[in-house]
Each structure stands twice: as C-alpha cells, then as structure tokens.
Amino acid sequence: MEVIILPSEKDCAKLGGQLIFDLVKENPACVLGLATGSTPVSLYKELIRLHKENDLSFSNVTSFNLDEYIGLSGDHPCSYRYFMQEQLFDSVDINLKSTHVPNGLANNIEAECDSYEQSILEVGGIDLQILGIGSDGHIGFNEPCSSLSSRTRMKTLTGETIKDNARFFESENEVPRHCITMGVGTILDTKSVLLFAFGEGKSDVISKAIEGPISSMVPASALQLHPNVKVILDEPAASKLVNIDYYKEVYANRPSS
Ligand code: GLP
Questions:
Q1: pLDDT, tens digit, for every residue of 137-194?
Q2: Which amino acid residue places its CA nearest to atom 3 of ligand 1?
Q3: Could you tell me if 13 and 45 are in contact, meaning their C-beta atoms sit under 8 angstroms apart?
Q4: What is the DSSP letter of 70?
Q5: Measured from the CB, is residue 197 less than 6 Å from ligand 1?
Q6: Cα–Cα distances in Å, from 215 out to 87, 180, 221, 246?
Q7: Are strands 193-197 and 229-234 parallel, antiparallel or unpaired?
C-alpha cells in the first residue's frame, strides 16, 4: 500500500487526475472502475478540466461503477447512474454505451449481478478502480461482515450508511435499504486501486483500514491484500495514522521524483 498524504483535497484530486491522465494516454481503451459519494466529486471535476484543457479523451474508455441502489431508476436524481451523468459523463466524451452501472430496477437481481461480473471479465478486467470509504469501513457498498472474497451481489445497507447517505435524499426514510455492489473480491481483482479520503471524519476508519488488522468488520482493510493500491489522503483524514511521518518520507523520497 502506498499512502500519500497531501495538504488539501484539491491536491489529492490533482494527483488522481494526473494518474488517470497518464493511464488513459498510455492505454486509451483502458477500463476504469468508478465510485460515487462526495469524495470523488473533486476528482471528476479535475478529469473534466483535463478533458477540456489538456485533450484528455475518454472516447475509448470503458467504465464500471461500484454500486447502485435497488429500486431507483437511472433517471432518479439520487441514483448512482444519475450522479455519474451529472458529475462526469455529461461533461466528457465517454461513449455512454461503454459506461456500466448496475441496474437497480432489474427483475432478477441475481442475474443482473452475474452478468455485471461477466461484463467486467469480457473486457479483461478493471485497470484502475477509484474508491472512497464509508464511515463504517465499507468500499462500494460492502458493509462490515462482507465476505472478503465476495462478488457482485445484493447487500442490505447498515443503519450508519443509511444515516450517512440520507443527506442526498429528502429524508432518511427515502434511502433505499438494498443495493447491488461489486464484491470485495471483485475489487481485489482490479489491477490497481486509488482510494481517496478527505476530512477528519474519515480519520478513524482510515487508520483502521490501513494500519489495523485485515477484517471483514472493516471491508476496506482487505485492500492490504491488493498488490497495487495508492491511498490518497488529505492531512485531516491522515491525522490518526501511527506511521504518518514514514508515509510522508517515503513519498518525498519516491524514486521517480
Ligand atoms: C457510499 C458509496 C461508497 C462511498 C461512500 C462514502 O455509500 N457507496 O462508494 O465510498 O458512500 O461516501 P462519501 O464519499 O460521500 O463520504
């Protein structure tokens, strides 16, 4: 795990944007795993800027989102399909047919999940997965106790996640209780991961995920098993890490700089 601590969210988004820029330039037909929530918003703004000002083209990129609420259609303003359209897809040249978000209205949820996994396999897997982290340690919607080898499937949201995500809905009651999410195993199969976290509110869970034991109680801790993860944090999110000075030294003395 490479832990990168930068002064501000803006710096983190800039670095993330540069890493994605480099990947897409090297492989214009790469496969991106995308995330929702407030964390990736600054990164998506940076990608839009790079598209408009630096010729970054997504025309051959394929994308797979981590998750979707069950029961919301893609044109519901709180659905993750809608979020992606608004925050990224509508402002770049990605081919919408190459963008994938689980269908929260599928009649047969199990079949939808299996075919989502199959579609990822058919394009050769995800080259780079963007992740945020829930306050209970979830990645995607893999809530505590998710099997660390789970695949795309239906999950029930925890009370904590429902509370956290209620800010996007009119009330807590409107938040769907179920979702489709890529599994922890699906995420571990991606070729590289960028996990972002900002703000003091994420500092406890970040220290558990990075420096705590690997446990299904903190699904993000499974990333310790992934060979190619960059965790990109602002100072407040990193503030409870024991080895903070070491991570800073490693980054400051990275071989490429
Ligand atoms: C949601 C998403 C996650 C996201 C998490 C954190 O539950 N399913 O993918 O990482 O929220 O959200 P935020 O970035 O708003 O803190």
A1: 999 999 999 999 999 999 999 999 999 999 999 999 999 999 999 999 999 999 999 9
A2: 140
A3: yes
A4: T
A5: no
A6: 32, 21, 6, 24
A7: parallel
CA 18 to ligand 1 centroid distance, Å:
22
Residue identifier of the C-alpha nearest atom 5 of ligand 1: 134
Q: Is the CB of 132 under 6 A from ligand 1?
A: yes
Give mean pLDDT, residues 97-123. Answer: 98
Query: For residue 257, what pLDDT is reported?
Result: 52
Between the CA of residue 34 and those of 85, 112, 172, 204, what are the distances in Å? Answer: 12, 18, 25, 24
Atom number in ligand 1 closest to CA 66 = 9
Report, as residue numbers or ranges, the catalytic residues: 67, 136, 138, 143
